[in-house]
Automatic annotation (TrEMBL):
One of its GO terms (cellular component) is respiratory chain complex IV. It comes from Cynoglossus semilaevis (Tongue sole). Its main location: mitochondrion. This is Uncharacterized protein. It is found in: Mitochondrion. Keywords: Disulfide bond, Mitochondrion. InterPro entries: COX6B-like (IPR048280), CX6/COA6-like_sf (IPR036549), Cyt_c_oxidase_su6B (IPR003213). It comes from the Eukaryota.
Length: 71
């Protein structure tokens, strides 16, 4: 697993939204994989920390059934 340091830059949604989108998908995949094994899902929070400002928007789309990604 990739080690995160305090020097890891946050994802800039304006400049690199496709990378942010992938991190958001990875967040959900990580949660699903660890939860299926009854393991702690807190390591998955790292992915979500890379997409500030977009998480709420994409969570809403999931709830509405309009999210364009496959989770």
């Amino acid at each position: 697993m990739l080690e995160v340091t305090s020097q890891t830059p946050p994802c800039d949604a304006c400049l690199n939204q496709s990378k942010c989108f992938q991190n958001y998908l990875d967040f959900h995949r990580c949660n699903n994989a660890l939860a299926a094994k009854d393991q702690d899902i807190s390591p998955c929070q790292w992915y979500q920390s890379l997409v500030p400002g977009l998480v709420g928007k994409w969570d809403e789309k999931i709830e509405q059934g309009t999210f364009p990604g496959k989770i």
